[in-house]
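so im writing up the methods section and need the histidine kinase record in one place, dumping it here so i stop losing it
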Amino acid sequence: MNIKAKLTFGLLFLFVVIICFGVLGIYYVNRLSNDASKILKDNQISVEYCSQMLKALDEIPGDPSQIAVFEKNLKLEENNITEPGEFQATAEVRYLFEQLKKDPIRFPEIRKMHKAIFKIADVNEIAIIHKNTKASHYAAQATLWLTIIVTILSLAAFTFVINFPSIIAKPIRELTEGIKEIANKNYSKRIHLDQKDEFGTLADTFNAMAAKLDEYEHSNLAEIKAEKGRIEAIINKMNDGIIGLNDKNEILFFNSAAEGLFGLKEKDIIGSYAADIAIQNDLLRTVLQNETSKQLKIFLDNKESFFVQESILIQADHVVGGRVIILRNITPFKELDAAKTNFIATISHELKIPLFAINMSTQLLEDKRMGEMNKDQTEILGTIKANAERLLKITGELLNMSQIETGRIQLKKEPAKPEVIVLRAMQAVQQQATQFDVMLKENVESNLPHINIDEEKTVWVLINFLNNAIKYSSEGGTVEVHVKRENEIIQFWVADYGKGIEEQYVDRVFDKYFQVPGTTERSGTGLGLSISKEFIEAQGGKIWVNSKYGEGSTFGFNILINA
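--- predicted struct ---
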């Protein structure tokens, strides 16, 4: 017999016991209740009415207001006549009461009314005694039968309670002991039950589970656990602040570096909802709200430190299981970058003086008043002049970049005509265009308004665009300069029809020191476009590029008319 059948049999037996005892109990209780109710309703209440009438009758001569009390109880009694002889006695009281109302003070039949009321009370008291005797008989009978039934059912239930639990308790006890052994990593524990029911099946399953656990214990599981501990130790020793969150945004781990940054202890917040902790911690709130990489300035170890936040989603089968937030300390790099910027600015500034001297010397040598030079000397002088100009350009770009990096860009905004800016830029590159056999074309919309900009820096940007376009155009090619108005914006752009830029490099052309691969033969510092971007954005404009490999490139910028 399986456990279900055993439990069904046992519960059915208890159900029958409960039903039998309940039916008999309800039957006898109802009989006793009915008898008690009749005594209370039919007789005891009438006795109470009589008591109230007698009390009121004695007080009527001195207090006529008791007539109403008497009449009230009399009416109640008239509506509760249940015993033989009670009606006649009540009618007599009613008759005498009507006489009394005519002359309450000199009424001569007070004693007769007392006698009639006592008669009503006697009838009900006799009925109470009779009914009480009858109820007592029923109670004794009920007690006898219930005692017999309870004794029989109790013996049967006691026998059942003694024998049945052992059928369930014994295998459960053995299974519990087995589970405790498994919890203590005693995977050699086995349970032996000679039963053909669910407990027997459960014991077999338990033994199979224990065998598997024993197998896993001696497999790579222990190594994986050890590796997990090793990785946690490594994370805890890292200098970067690392926070682990699960899919419910609860804190999984908080390494030592993060404790120092946030002023929190891992043991105090592990398992807590991160947003609750962030209410009291401004830095944690900022980090949790930031979804993208962002540079943070944090006062740490009595100085300003810089950190870059990275957020890594933990995904498996396209389901996000949490994320890891890393705060990488870039303060040393910031310090090195500042030192580099200062060094470049210093060197560039120092180089400009001798370069100007070299340039001036070449101009003097070109003056025929200094004497004639032969062909070889002229070529050497031309090479010196070209390299000096190239070095001057490079030092100029480096100085501009150092200004940008130190935040010292100084703008001199004045109203300027767009066509004048284009003219100055084209004049500056005309010689280079002629040298590379490239034709310059301009397409400037007429009647353009003045724009409030730094003319020198804007011309510098346009010259840089034109220089690049000329360099990367084929001989005999064309470079076009366009200017037009769109609503409250003036657009400048330079288009060439050279080989263009491969798609994967287009988004990086404005990065510092970036040079498109394959163009080293005409490369410079890689700073020109980066400087151009900073100059335009400093004036509230926007720089952009469109390029299609094999067809050419277009570089441009937009400037607000009322910037």
